[in-house]
């Protein structure tokens, strides 16, 4: 493809993303699937340029608005990106928008004025507001500042970078060293991750679909942060475990492998289609201790029937996904799923219902890929108020039990952030249900209280 034809493909792709109510990565996959004639080099270039433009959405929009151009159309964003970030000069840009075969149409008068106004500038500008510079949408500014405090800018800047490619080694089939060796045979360079005992970080972005180590289930693609959430579940071989919001099974796989194929993991979700896809991954990984169980809702009668039966229950709740903005740069600008006003009550309901599954002495692990306090510490605090039989198990204690090296965090909860840990933003809280004896003792203690004293205490 000529450079101009590639640019037209980027414009087409950005237009499709704007017009399709689906995440950009899904739109991109479909775009290339329907155009198999686009070679791999061109595909990479088109995808990278499109992502680069999505990552600069607010800054390009700020410049476009500043020049008085009516709307940040895909063509306007491509023009602004070429001039401000790629530093092409106006003459070269004009040549590309030639109107020739496969090239973008000629510039309109407004577009010509835009090019003239932006020529010789760069993307950064001293008058650009901080929220634009770090690409923070209005709705998220308050909650992000509240959650991150004086780390707002540094974390938001890190969220603008492309996420690294992390793999989790399937301990049923390999270890970190043997997986590195297997990958090196196909010229894929990987090194061990900083925190996860199963993690590898790959250099560059090689295609893994055809690689033996991936096809044979030695490694799975999984962000290091997501691996650490699975580690926080701390399942033991022989345990009974529920992954209540299993989705495509990323954490289920890590949990089941940690259990060495012994015991049982029930993967639940309200989306049966996702669970079906997950089942294929379970098979490839050689894990036979997983069963999939679709739910009609978090209140599915199955939950009541299995009250207090499980050692570990993971609730990897649906959330704002603010921790994954590195890999989904469009997510901050397009509301494709429910908003916070729907998510917060849903998370509380899921947590409340899933808690019924936990046996005395067992653990409920609440996790999100959100950076926001209300979805994380806020939910845990509200849950503990209404569930006095659960207490927080500090994450350092879990790490010590798992012999997983030094804890990646201080404090009670696993709170991972891109700038501190170079992972996606994740949160996990481990909540332990008191053993039956402890509850019985407390109840017995209550009976010993003099009723008159109790009445006085209540009046007070
Ligand atoms: C953050 S995703 C889970 C990701 C998955 N655990 C993984 O590691 O790949 C949240 C999941 O919760 C599911 N979900 C949404 N509402 C639910 C509900 N009421 N009960 C159970 N699962 C629900 C969604 O379908 C989605 O798959």
Automatic annotation (TrEMBL):
Q: Composition bias, kind Acidic residues: at what positions?
A: 439-451
Q: Which InterPro entries match?
A: MeTrfase_RsmB-F_NOP2_cat, MeTrfase_RsmB-F_NOP2_dom, RCMT, RsmB-like_ferredoxin, RsmB/NOL1/NOP2-like_CS, SAM-dependent_MTases_sf
CDD domains, sorted: AdoMet_MTases
Please name the GO terms of the biological process aspect recorded for this protein, alphabetically: RNA methylation
MF annotations from Gene Ontology: RNA binding; RNA methyltransferase activity
Catalytic residues (UniProt): 369 (nucleophile)
Query: Which terms are listed as keywords in the entry?
Result: Methyltransferase, RNA-binding, S-adenosyl-L-methionine, Transferase
The record's section on Gene3D superfamilies has:
Sun protein, domain 3, Vaccinia Virus protein VP39
Instruction: Tell me the superkingdom of the source.
Output: Bacteria
Residues annotated for S-adenosyl-L-methionine binding in this entry: 269, 316
Residues of the SAM-dependent MTase RsmB/NOP-type domain = 155-434
Which segments carry the region annotation Disordered?
439-460
**Family, per the entry?**
Belongs to the class I-like SAM-binding methyltransferase superfamily. RsmB/NOP family.
State the name under which the record lists this protein: RsmB/NOP family class I SAM-dependent RNA methyltransferase
């Amino acid at each position: 493809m000529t450079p101009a034809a590639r640019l037209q493909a980027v414009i087409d792709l950005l237009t499709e993303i704007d017009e399709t109510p689906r995440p950009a990565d899904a739109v991109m996959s479909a775009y290339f699937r329907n155009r198999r004639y686009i070679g791999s080099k061109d595909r990479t270039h088109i995808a990278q340029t499109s992502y680069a433009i999505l990552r600069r959405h607010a800054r390009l929009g700020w410049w476009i608005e500043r020049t008085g151009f009516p709307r940040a159309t895909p063509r306007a964003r491509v023009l602004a990106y070429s001039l401000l970030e790629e530093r092409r000069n106006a003459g070269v840009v004009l040549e590309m928008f030639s109107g020739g075969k496969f090239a973008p149409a000629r510039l309109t008068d407004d577009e010509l004025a835009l090019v003239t106004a932006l020529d010789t500038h760069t993307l950064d500008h001293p008058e650009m507001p901080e929220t634009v510079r770090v690409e923070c949408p209005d709705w998220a500014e308050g909650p992000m500042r509240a959650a991150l405090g004086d780390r707002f800018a540094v974390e938001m800047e890190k969220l603008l970078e492309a996420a690294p490619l992390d793999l989790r080694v399937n301990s049923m089939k390999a270890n970190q060293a043997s997986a590195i060796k297997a990958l090196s045979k196909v010229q894929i360079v990987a090194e061990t991750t900083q925190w996860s005992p199963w993690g590898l970080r790959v250099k560059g972005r090689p295609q893994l679909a055809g690689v033996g180590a991936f096809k044979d289930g030695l490694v799975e693609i999984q962000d290091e942060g997501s691996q650490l959430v699975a580690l926080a579940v701390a399942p033991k071989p022989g345990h009974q475990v529920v992954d209540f919001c299993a989705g495509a099974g990323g954490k289920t796989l890590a949990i089941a492998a940690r259990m060495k194929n012994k015991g049982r993991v029930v993967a639940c979700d309200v989306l049966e289609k996702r669970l079906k896809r997950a089942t294929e991954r379970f098979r490839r990984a050689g894990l036979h201790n997983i069963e999939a169980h679709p739910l009609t809702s978090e209140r599915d009668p199955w939950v009541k029937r299995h009250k207090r039966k499980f050692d570990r229950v993971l609730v990897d709740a649906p959330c704002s996904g603010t921790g994954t903005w590195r890999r989904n740069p469009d997510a901050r600008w397009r509301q494709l799923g429910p908003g916070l006003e729907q998510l917060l009550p849903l998370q509380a309901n899921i947590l409340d219902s899933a808690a019924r599954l936990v046996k005395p002495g067992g653990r409920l692990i609440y996790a999100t890929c959100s950076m926001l306090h209300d979805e994380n510490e806020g939910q845990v605090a509200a849950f503990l108020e209404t569930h006095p039989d659960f207490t927080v198990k500090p994450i350092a204690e879990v790490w010590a039990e798992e012999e997983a090296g030094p804890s990646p965090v201080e404090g009670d909860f696993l709170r991972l952030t891109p700038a501190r840990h170079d992972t996606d933003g994740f949160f996990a809280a481990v909540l332990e249900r008191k053993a039956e004896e402890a509850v019985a003792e407390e109840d017995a203690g209550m009976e010993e209280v003099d009723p008159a004293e109790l009445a006085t205490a209540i009046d007070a």
